[in-house]
Specification:
Layout: H1 8-29, E1 42-45, E2 48-51, E3 55-57, E4 60-64, H2 87-92, E5 98-103, H3 105-108, H4 117-132, E6 136-141, E7 162-163, E8 185-186, H5 194-204, H6 210-224, E9 231-235, H7 247-268, E10 276-279, H8 284-288, E11 304-306, H9 324-336, E12 343-347, H10 353-370, E13 373-376, H11 386-391, E14 405-408, E15 413-417, H12 419-425, E16 429-434, E17 436-440, E18 444-458, E19 465-478, E20 481-496
Parallel strand pairs: 4-5, 4-13, 5-6, 6-9, 9-10, 10-11, 12-13
Antiparallel strand pairs: 1-2, 3-16, 7-8, 14-15, 16-18, 17-18, 18-20, 19-20
Helix pairs in contact: 6-7, 10-12
Length: 497
């Protein structure tokens, strides 16, 4: 140093850099204040989703589809609903602490090599709005039946008994390589289209470099959120079709894509921190409740989470086999191969809410017993959503397709909440529990650890609680229910009298 005196402007710059660095460390290592709740960044510890303060975190919420890029199969009906300003506040009023935000490759990369920053800004705004309500976000690269461009073209029709295919969501048209295979479906089942299977197989084979495009898109998106603790992580591909391979070969090629995507994401996160990576079995799991799995060596990252869609007892081929409870056991057994937690990225019932509400309660009981979370499908669904179009429900007023927010179709006006689903979905649970959760039941929970405890209780009546091992206990009434906070130091238990 040529002088012992440092100019004032340099001192100021040093202080600014130090403050910025300290702020970054704080964002990564300590809870970020979100008003009523705290959202530390998440990690994996001993096969459970935890936060960096050492608490087991149960992520319970819903799929938010308003930013997806669905095909508009009926020009008169919008395919997605607007993401309203109060959307996440209403989710928080049901005790939700996570949104599985469905996003679309077709919107992120509308032309080869492009990266739509306006669309990314919409994603960022949703993450920010959710964070302000104490809600984490899972970024889900969503697809159904490959993409928007696999529907039967206008002017063409399929011979009976086959049915015309419709457009869905996912890949951009330029990455849809059907090789001229038929777009017709059998029994209206979207995955039965030869064009869908051919498109997926070309993706796994990286024909024309299309898999590399999605890998690069994931890297660019991960770079955008590498410093954001409110982003749980990345669901690499929703319900991937097995393509044209046998189950074992199909699982292997899906695993190779996952390995490639994870490596690109980790490279992009340098300078920030590593987020969770959620991976799914093929779409066969949603249909059968079991599937061949990618070899573990493709998924040896310490922050992977097994995220199957647990539709056992709902829409799988046999409504009773496997049962709800067996579906959880199968998922946990599969996750053990990867030493990974389980998180149910989708689950729901789509029939008569009067009959299905009891099944929803039963599913929540199973989540409690196994101390895991999940995201209901879905929060809101527009009248032109392909799920509605496919099932011919656009003429039905107040028809629910599992969505909690009912839509009057075809007007698109809100028809209020589906309370028969909202009640069991809003049940009390520990959102973040210090250390290890040993028990979660209908009436309470227990664990062992030291730190800040957070739990949710629904309703207007103040919960009457019996606690042991909890100090600084506070119950604060908030929209839709009550926020419990407290401090634990060892074994603790909280129960409703």
């Amino acid at each position: 140093m040529r002088s012992s005196r440092v100019p004032t402007r340099i001192v100021t710059l040093i202080l600014l850099v130090a403050a910025t660095a300290a702020q970054q460390v704080s964002a990564n290592a300590r809870p970020a204040d979100t008003g009523d709740w705290t959202l530390p960044r998440l990690t994996v510890t001993d096969g459970a989703i935890t936060d960096v303060t050492g608490r087991t975190v149960l992520l319970r919420g819903a799929n938010v589809t308003q930013l997806n890029d669905y095909a508009q199969n009926d020009p008169a009906l919008p395919a997605t609903a607007r993401l309203e300003p109060d959307e996440f506040a209403r989710m928080a009023a049901h005790g939700f602490n996570v949104s599985r935000l469905t996003i679309a490759w077709s919107a992120l990369e509308p032309t080869p090599g492009a990266f739509d920053t306006d669309y990314v800004a919409r994603i960022r705004e949703a993450v920010k709005d959710a964070k302000a309500q104490g809600i984490y976000t899972v970024l889900d690269m969503h697809q159904d039946a490959w993409g928007k461009a696999v529907g039967t073209p206008p002017g063409e029709s399929c011979p009976s008994p086959l049915e015309d295919g419709i457009g869905w969501d996912g890949a951009p048209a330029w990455a849809t390589l059907t090789d001229g295979w038929s777009t017709c479906t059998l029994g209206g089942m979207r995955e039965s289209s030869p064009a869908v299977a051919r498109s997926f197989q070309n993706f796994y084979d990286d024909a024309q470099g299309i898999q590399g495009h999605l890998v690069n898109t994931w890297a660019r998106l991960a770079a955008e959120f590498k410093d954001e603790p409110a982003v749980v992580g990345y669901d690499l591909l929703n319900e991937p079709n097995p393509g044209l391979r046998d189950p074992i070969s199909a699982a292997d090629q899906i695993g190779r894509f996952y390995q490639r995507a994870i490596a690109a994401i980790r490279q992009a996160e340098q300078g920030g921190f590593a987020h969770l990576v959620l991976f799914e079995p093929s779409a066969v799991w949603s249909a059968l409740g079991v599937d061949a799995l990618p070899p573990p060596h493709y998924l040896n990252d310490p922050l992977v989470v097994f995220a199957p869609h647990l539709y056992s007892g709902s829409i799988n081929v046999s409504n009773d086999v496997p049962s709800i409870e067996d579906g959880f056991r199968l998922a946990l057994d599969a996750a053990a191969r990867y030493r990974a937690p389980v998180w149910a990225g989708e689950w729901a019932w789509f029939g008569d809410p009067d009959a299905d509400a009891a099944k929803v309660d039963r599913f929540v009981d199973a989540m409690n017993e196994n101390r895991i979370g999940g995201a209901w499908w879905s929060w809101t669904q527009a009248c032109g959503d392909p799920h509605f179009i496919h099932d011919g429900n656009t003429a039905d007023t107040h028809k629910t397709m599992g969505n909690m927010n009912l839509i009057d179709c075809p007007s698109g006006r809100s028809a209020g909440m589906e309370e028969r689903f909202a009640r069991p979905l809003s049940r009390a649970y520990p959102r973040a529990a210090p250390g290890h959760l040993t028990e979660v039941t209908t009436t309470g929970f227990a664990g062992t650890g030291t730190g800040r405890l957070e739990a949710w209780y629904p309703g207007t009546e103040r919960p009457d609680l019996d606690t042991t091992g909890v100090t600084d206990l506070d119950l604060t009434q908030i929209d839709g229910g009550w926020r419990l906070t407290g401090t634990t130091a060892g074994t603790y238990r909280v129960a409703q009298r």
